[in-house]
Protein 1
Amino acid sequence: GIFPNPSNGLFELKFEEAINGLLEIRVLDLSGKQAAYFRFQVNGMLSELLPLNHLQAGTYVLQIKNNGKELSKKIQIQ
C-alpha cells in the first residue's frame, strides 16, 4: 500500500508479499503528464519512501509496474 494518503508529499510504498524483479513507478498528473519516476530492483519485501514534496498540491495517479502486472492508485498531495 501507499501511505499516508493524503500526504504532504512524502509517501511510503510498502508491499506485504514478496515481489521480485524491476519495479517501475510513474507518478502522473490528471492530464496524464509524468511528474516523477522511480525504479527499484526488488528481491523480497519492499518498503521505500517516495519523496514527492516537489510537486504541487493536487491529485496524482501512481502507476506501479512489476513483471507485466500494473496497478494504479490515486494519491493526494496537500
Protein 2
Amino acid sequence: MQTINNIYQIGSRNINLAQFFEKPISFSKCFCFILGACLWYVITTGAYHDSGSGFERHVCLYGGSSTTCSFGSALGFFAFVGSAVAIYIDLRLPNESSMPTKRRIMKIDIYIAVSFACIHLLAFIMFWSKVGNSVPDEANLSYAKIGIMISLFASIAWGITSLLAYRRFEEFNLEIKINELESDGKQKPDESSVANGVDPAQAASPQAVPFTDGYGY
C-alpha cells in the first residue's frame, strides 16, 4: 500500500517527455503497449469461428477451447494496462527524490516485465500447439495466426524490457555506492596527505569515478 501511495505521489509532479524518450526502455515499453492492444483486439474479434447454429455457435480457433481464447483476450488486456502503468511510472520516476522509493518502484518494474515475458511465452506455446485443432475446415485462421505472432513478439519485447529495467536498477545501486564513497572521502581526509602538507580540503575530495548513464536510466 505504501508503494502505491508513493507511485501516486510521483504522479502529481511534472512530466519530462524529452528525458523519457531518451531512454531505450521507454521505447520498449511503448512497443509492449502497442502489442498488448493488438493481442487484445485480435483475440477478441478474430479468434472465434461463427458456426451459425448449435449451442456452441462461436468456436475458439485454438483447439475449440473457449478457455484459451478467454486467456488470450485477458492477457492482451492486462498487458495493455500493465504497460500503460509502466510507462506512466517511467514518466514520473525522475522527479522522485526518495532513493528507497525509487528502488522499490524499480523492483516492481522488473517483476512486471519478467512476469509478462513468461506469460506471453506460455501463451505463444499454447496458441501454436492448439491453432486449427478441432475447428471446422472453413474457419478463417488468419487472426488466430496473427495472435500467435503477436504473443511471440510480446514475449521478446517484455524480455528486453526486463533486461533494461534490471540494468537500470543495477546502475542506480552503483550510483548510490559511488555517492556514499564520495561522501565518506569528503568526511575523512587522507592523514598521510595532510602530513605531507596537502590542503585538507583537497585531501578530502576524492577523484571523480567514471560513470555512465547506461541504458534505460
Protein 3
Amino acid sequence: MIWEAIQRAKSEKLNLDVVWLDLANAYGSVPHEMIQLSLRMYHVPEVIQVMLDDYFSGFRMRFSTNSYTTNWINLEVGIAMGCTISPILFVMAMEVILKAAEGSVGPANLGGGCSMPTLKAFMDDTTIICSKEDETRRMLTRLDDLMSWCRMEFKPKKSRSLSIRRGKVDEATTFTVAEQQKPTVSQEPRKMV
C-alpha cells in the first residue's frame, strides 16, 4: 500500500511525504498506567483488568555486583517479553496512541479520488503518509507529544523520511523526531517493515 502510494505520487506528479518511525525500547517502555488505560478504552472486563494490574504491580528487579546489591525496585514501565499476552497489550497501548493522533490531519490525497489513511502501524513501526508538508509536521508533533505524555519515544536514528514534490523526490525537505533531524531514505537507506 505504501509503495503503491509512492509510485502513484510519482506517476501522477503529486506531493507526498512518507515518514517511517521506530519506537525506542518498544516493549520495555510501555507504562503500566498506559496498559490500564487501553484496557478500559477497549472495554476489557474489570476482572481481567484487576488481574493484569496485580500481575504488573508485582514486577520488581534489583541489581547486584560482587560487592553490592540494591533493594528491590518496583517497575512502572515495560511488558514482559515472552509473556503470551504481551503482544496484545502492546498493540492495544499503541492503538490508543494512534487513535489519539489520527484526527490531527486528514487522509493523504493520492489523486483521482483516491486517499489513504495517514497512519499505518505494525507493532513498534509506524508510518505517516501525508500529501501536505504542514500536515506531516503537525502529525509528527502530535505523535511526539503523545509519546512524551506516555514517557515513550521514537528512535530518530532508525527513522527515515521520503518527500515527493510534483512527482519528484525532494531531498531538501527534512523532518525532525524527538528534536533530532532525521535522514531521508536517499541519504541513509534502511530496510523497514
